[in-house]
Amino acid sequence: MFDPHDETVRRFAAAWRRRDSAALEAVLDDDAVATCDGGGLVPAPARTVCGATEVARLVIEVMGGRADTELTVESVNGRAGLALRHASRAVAVVGTETAGSRITTLWIVLNPAKLTAWHRG
Questions:
Q1: Residue 19 DSSP label
Q2: For residues 52 and 103, what is the distance between their CA atoms, to the nearest angstrom?
Q3: I need a surface site. Which of 13, 43, 103, 111 has the fewest CB within 10 A?
Q4: What is the pLDDT of residues 87-109, one digit of tens each?
Q5: How confident is the model at residue 65 (pLDDT cuts 50, 70, 90)?
Q6: Please, what's the largest Cα pairwise distance for the chain?
Q7: Are the beta carbons of 94 and 109 closer than 8 angstroms?
């Protein structure tokens, strides 16, 4: 069964894997917002980031990291979201909200204390 939300998140993941900021922006709503939770333990913006261009830039910056990271589409809070891992250890989990074929909201958890359940192996 086709789920527009899932397909939108998959398109976003594919754009991230290519580190293609224009493709990321194309999947994001013009008024997209992203909120990060670094828990004071890792660098993260203190304020909500707004607008497709700024959110795409943020995603590349905070999730871009190493070339040997793995990004997977997984269930996050019951909907398709993203998990980013390095050496099987989660470094980010992203919840998403969509409207039609665009992402409107990203909740990016970077706080290591909240990611332990997402580690593999």
A1: T
A2: 9
A3: 43
A4: 899 999 999 999 999 999 999 99
A5: low
A6: 41
A7: yes
